[in-house]
Amino acid sequence: MFCSILSAALLGVDSRLVEVEADVSEGLPMFSMVGYLSSQVREAQDRVRTAIKNSGIRLQPKRITLNMSPADLRKEGTSFDLPIAIGILGAYGHLRPSSVENIMAAGELSLNGEIRPVRGVLPMALMAKESGCRLFLVPRENLKEAQAAGGIAAYGAGNLNEAIDIIEGRSILEKPQDEEGHQEGGWEGQKNDTEPLRHEREDFSDILGQEAGKRAAQIAMAGLHNILFIGPPGAGKSLIAKRLPTILPPMSEEEQLEVSKIYSIAGMLPKGEPLLKTRPFRAPHHTVTAQALAGGGRYPRPGEVSLAHRGVLFLDELAEFSSSTLEILRQPLEEHSIWIARMGGSCMFPARFVLAAAMNPCKCGYFPDLERCICTPGQVQRYLGRISQPLLERFDMCVEIPKAGYDDMLSAPPGEDSAGMRAKVCASMEIQEERYRGSAYRYNSDLDGEGISRYCAMDREAEEIMKSAFYRLDLSVRSYHYVIRTARTIADLEGSSIIRGGHAAEAVCYRSADRKYWNRGGIY
What we know:
Blueprint: E1 2-11, E2 14-25, E3 30-34, H1 39-42, H2 44-54, E4 63-69, H3 81-92, E5 103-105, E6 108-109, E7 115-116, H4 121-131, E8 135-139, H5 143-147, E9 154-157, H6 160-168, H7 211-223, E10 227-230, H8 237-242, H9 253-265, E11 281-282, H10 290-294, E12 295-296, E13 301-302, H11 304-307, E14 312-316, H12 323-327, H13 330-335, E15 337-342, E16 345-350, E17 354-359, H14 377-384, H15 389-393, E18 397-400, H16 406-411, H17 418-435, H18 449-455, H19 460-472, H20 477-493, H21 501-512
Parallel strand pairs: 3-4, 5-8, 8-9, 10-17, 10-18, 11-14, 14-17
Antiparallel strand pairs: 1-2, 2-4, 6-7, 12-13, 15-16
Helix pairs in contact: 2-3, 7-17, 7-20, 19-21, 20-21
């Protein structure tokens, strides 16, 4: 007898439909599996047979042939255990043929028949919804994640016997309900949190002084600009950077789904949270490998640049990262995505993140204070030379964070807190949303040359400042555009429809800070 059931294979941040076909016939007892399978999938035959036996189901020794179509798509992971078991049971006649029609299943089986959670259930659920499946069967621990896709009847089972009862309609499990009594699924009942996830100490009001650094942080988040903090040790660079997520606007429903898909595929969704509602903040150590940063492996998986999608990627001690690792960032910073090509296939992962970095100006950290700096000019140049000019240009803003003074430490009044700064950032975002509605742009940091000429009108004073800065700072076209984008954000924060002289002057300051340390010939 023949039986087929649907499942899904992960490919990048999406999934592909897989048909699991099982045939049981007379002949020499054996179990044959075909369809471009990884060793993990091939091992499923032993798990499945033992799980069926320990679930109290006795199968006659027969010839079992199992095919996973399409045959040219690589199948890996343990999520095929459950559909394989259901396909075999259907082929043996333990399930009615009509009961397995147009259903999708995913889950790992233990030897005693329990169904264990798997990664990537959210993109699988979206595929089931798109394919018009009438039922999606998942491990009980993955149920909320599957229901977050909405528009699909998702059910969770704890063991193989429960799965059989659900398929046959003998025992339909109730969908979980939220506190208000609404069934979970889709966007109904999902709370769009307006407050960021903050720890007790992570608030900008806790940082004494450093108003210029906090002002730069607000501008960077208001337009999603990449920002580099440079200054001596203990000045507060990392403190400011780690508080950037507290002033970011909440994610839209579309962004929540994008980010949650990535974390689902990586197996990093928090338990009990089917959707991530706070923007990611990733801070890998400077020993991170190029593969861990970009993503990859034998079969491509998302790396740090993708895990930071729609959030912040913070690189502390930037100059301590290996040059080869840092250069990987150049392409995703421009294209907001990264292609990973490996033996197991090629995948595109989204990588739309704000790059925030912090570094000392030299190995000892005190350059250009020659009274305290113990580095030679050559050592300073080699240290700063670890950051290539092409990568440096991709920072819209470079901010010098000086050492805090004694008065700032003891008697400085509390600065604006994260909630107040965030309100201004959100107001700026609303202006940008209205301005770019119907266009290819979404934020000021998305603007290219055409967008700048269309949306970045300047008064005469601003034009003169930008012209002077272009020649005086020897700006490249990319750097020039980045300065204008920053000025556009500053104008939005002040509610100005055009870029005025003061906006342009402040934006130029954020570009000229790096010229204090770098130039074509080394350091000044």
